[in-house]
């Protein structure tokens, strides 16, 4: 175990940014801290990096208490969201900074530093730009310089704050894959913060979903996506249809719709049901209205069809309630639906969460 | 405020913003006329009066012992006050922009105080504190220390009056630059001094130089506060502006304007240096987005 975080809390004035968080970072893994803005993920990362002081709790790095250590002694590399390159230094000098500010006795010779810097710039494919200034680089190039600069001090842990947040979509995707390859080659324990669930699910070995300063769930991308531990995680990871309902006798009745869904494992009382858009199956009106003995499938009206790319999205009106369905283009073609048409819907694999007396999620 | 740059007219002004020709010309003529009358003419007068009898008497007036003493004293006072304000201005700007603490906005207001208070009062304060009948007067006298009517008083009054220049120049720039680069440096293992030398200082150097220039111009030209604490002892506690006044009151116009022309030259050199700085490093001097 590389980093062990226990009961870390941080308060800014009246705002509790990080609320008694426990977390373990495994050696060599790429871990994502995922959450909406204000969920405390960046604050937690900054506490890990020694840039912010925790109010309570403890952190160990490789079994050693780290809260009292300076960033230098923690041996972490930090990559900032807005790069934070030194604007008056060339790319070369930016990357060399961490090596040149070392105490004289630990410092490499000028030539050795330069050699190491050029090797790193080769790694991030920026060697030809060594003499440029940050203002002469594109966003993606700046981010790579920031990464090379953080790697120059040979950190044991790499921390990245929204590393792709300020880049446009195409560059972001490229850089994401490149970072994954780099991590697979170097195996440096890395923690990155993101609010983009797609980014977290694609890039990370494990994902930590955070909300209001707390950890909601920790798991592999498949675990958190397929088995969300809480309504928040379900809602945050990917598009979802949400219905408030009441559970009684193992059946959930969707409010205002008169529809029922099986509700195994959820106690009676108010609850919320989630259905992923790709679990909403559309059936033509001339198809079977029900499958042997089950109540007839509800009817919905097509409000809009977005069919760009390999999948198509259909917005439906289910008795006044919006419903989103996603399917591949072939399926949509087979259905031959137009805007305003009626069809039947089957809500497969619903996921229910009891909300108890006090509703956790408000509409 | 006088430190901010005048907004440049946008090259592609929309027709909506284009005023009729007669209005534009009237406004330009008014502005130029006003400037000529109130700035250019007086400045010209200084040089014309100083050289009224030719270069000979001009240089004689400047080489006179009292004039030389005044020049030396002015250089000495500015030579102490400017470095002091350089250091404290940087410290104040650093404290205000890099830390959060109780009473911060009060401190920012306080930095502006010397701008808003009359220079005479700035001088009076030191008389009340360190004068013979002031708070510390008896103690100073007992220890044979003289502050007012001596060089220390001149330095104190000048430091007070010129304190805001460096700090006011740095605060907006450092605010806009934020603390991210400093954090990056800290995360790379740099210590406090290294962060200041290698990251903060290079980022503010041109604004700092600009602030020092303005501070120096004011330090050498200050009249009011210095006048109160000087005591006007010729050859001893007279700075250049005070010397100009004495000469003028003695109807020694050529000498008065000769010394005055040096101050005017200083102002022109400062303006030129300021323009060069703004032209060459405009972004760095005034910060992005200004």
Please supply descriptive tags for the structure shown above.
heterodimer, A: alpha+beta, six-stranded mixed beta sheet, five-stranded antiparallel beta sheet, elongated, disordered C terminus, B: 290 residues, mainly alpha
How would you sum up the global shape of chain B?
globular
Alpha-carbon distance between the two ends of chain A: 41 Å
Provide the succession of SSEs of chain A.
Answer: EEEHEEHEHHHEHEHEEHHEEEEEEEEHEE
Tell me the fraction of residues in β-strands of chain B, as a range. under 5%
Short note summarizing the structure:
The complex is a heterodimer of chains A (363) and B (290). Chain A has helices spanning 41-49, 71-74, 91-100, 110-123, 139-152, 169-186, 197-203, 221-226, 231-236, 329-335; strands at 3-12, 15-25, 30-34, 56-61, 64-65, 76-79, 157-161, 189-194, 206-211, 214-219, 241-248, 251-254, 259-262, 269-275, 280-283, 299-306, 311-318, 321-328, 342-347, 351-354. Chain A is an alpha+beta fold and 363 residues long.
Topology:
The complex is a heterodimer of chains A (363) and B (290).
Chain A: E1 3-12, E2 15-25, E3 30-34, H1 41-49, E4 56-61, E5 64-65, H2 71-74, E6 76-79, H3 91-100, H4 110-123, H5 139-152, E7 157-161, H6 169-186, E8 189-194, H7 197-203, E9 206-211, E10 214-219, H8 221-226, H9 231-236, E11 241-248, E12 251-254, E13 259-262, E14 269-275, E15 280-283, E16 299-306, E17 311-318, E18 321-328, H10 329-335, E19 342-347, E20 351-354
Helix pairs in contact in A: 3-4, 3-5, 4-5
Chain B: H1 21-50, H2 55-63, H3 65-98, H4 104-116, H5 119-130, H6 137-142, H7 151-177, H8 180-187, H9 192-221, H10 224-230, H11 240-249, H12 253-286
């Amino acid at each position: 175990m590389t980093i062990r975080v226990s009961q870390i809390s941080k308060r800014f004035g009246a705002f509790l940014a990080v609320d008694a968080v426990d977390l373990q970072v495994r050696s060599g893994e790429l871990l994502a801290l995922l959450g909406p803005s204000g969920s405390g993920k960046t604050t937690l990362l900054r506490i890990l990096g020694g840039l912010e002081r925790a109010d309570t709790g403890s952190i160990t790095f490789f079994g050693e208490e780290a809260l009292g250590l300076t960033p230098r002694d923690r041996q972490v590399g930090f990559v900032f969201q807005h790069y934070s390159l030194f604007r008056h230094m060339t790319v070369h000098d930016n990357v060399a900074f961490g090596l040149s500010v070392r105490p004289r006795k630990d410092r490499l010779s000028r030539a050795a530093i330069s050699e190491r810097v050029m090797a790193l710039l080769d790694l991030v494919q920026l060697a030809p730009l060594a003499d440029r200034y940050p203002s002469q680089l594109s966003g993606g190039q700046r981010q790579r310089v920031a990464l090379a600069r953080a790697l120059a001090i040979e950190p044991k842990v790499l921390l990245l704050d929204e590393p792709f947040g300020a880049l446009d979509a195409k560059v972001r995707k490229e850089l994401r894959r490149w970072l994954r390859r780099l991590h697979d080659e170097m195996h440096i324990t890395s923690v990155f913060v993101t609010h983009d669930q797609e980014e977290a699910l694609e890039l990370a070995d494990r994902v930590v979903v955070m909300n209001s300063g707390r950890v909601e769930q920790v798991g592999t991308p498949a675990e958190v996506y397929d088995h969300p531990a809480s309504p928040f995680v379900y809602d945050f990871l990917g598009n979802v249809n949400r219905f408030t309902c009441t559970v009684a006798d193992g059946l959930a009745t969707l409010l205002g719709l008169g529809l029922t869904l099986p509700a195994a494992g959820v106690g009676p009382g108010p609850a919320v049901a989630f259905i992923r858009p790709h679990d909403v199956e559309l059936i033509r009106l001339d198809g079977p209205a029900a499958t042997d003995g089950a109540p007839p499938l509800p009817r919905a009206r097509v409000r809009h069809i977005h069919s760009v790319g390999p999948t198509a999205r259909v917005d439906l009106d289910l008795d006044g309630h919006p419903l989103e369905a996603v399917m591949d283009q072939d399926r949509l073609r087979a259905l031959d639906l137009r805007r305003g048409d009626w069809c039947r819907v089957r809500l497969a694999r619903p996921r229910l969460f009891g909300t108890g007396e006090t509703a956790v999620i408000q509409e | 405020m006088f430190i901010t740059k005048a907004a440049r007219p946008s090259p592609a002004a929309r027709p909506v913003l284009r005023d009729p020709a007669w209005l534009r010309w009237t406004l330009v003529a008014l502005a130029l006329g006003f400037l000529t009358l109130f700035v250019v003419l007086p400045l010209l007068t200084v040089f014309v009066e100083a050289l009224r009898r030719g270069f000979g008497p001009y240089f004689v007036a400047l080489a006179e012992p009292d004039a030389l003493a005044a020049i030396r004293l002015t250089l000495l006072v500015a030579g102490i006050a400017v470095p002091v304000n350089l250091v404290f201005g940087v410290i104040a700007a650093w404290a205000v922009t890099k830390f959060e603490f109780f009473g911060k906005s009060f401190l920012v207001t306080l930095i502006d105080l010397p701008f808003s208070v009359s220079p005479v009062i700035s001088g009076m304060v030191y008389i009340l504190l360190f004068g013979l009948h002031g708070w510390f007067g008896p103690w100073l006298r007992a220890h044979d220390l003289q502050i007012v009517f001596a060089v220390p008083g001149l330095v104190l009054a000048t430091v007070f009056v010129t304190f805001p220049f460096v700090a006011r120049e740095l605060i907006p720039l450092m605010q806009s630059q934020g603390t991210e680069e400093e954090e990056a440096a800290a995360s790379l293992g740099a210590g406090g001094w290294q962060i200041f030398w290698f990251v903060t200082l290079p980022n503010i150097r041109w604004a700092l130089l600009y602030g020092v220039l303005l501070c120096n111009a004011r330090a050498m030209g200050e009249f009011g506060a210095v006048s109160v604490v000087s005591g006007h002892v010729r050859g001893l506690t007279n700075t250049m502006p005070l010397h100009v006044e004495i000469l003028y009151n003695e109807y020694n116009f050529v000498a008065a304007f000769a010394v005055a022309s040096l101050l005017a030259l200083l102002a022109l050199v400062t303006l030129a240096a300021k323009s060069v700085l703004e032209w060459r490093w405009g972004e760095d001097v005034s910060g992005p987005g200004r």
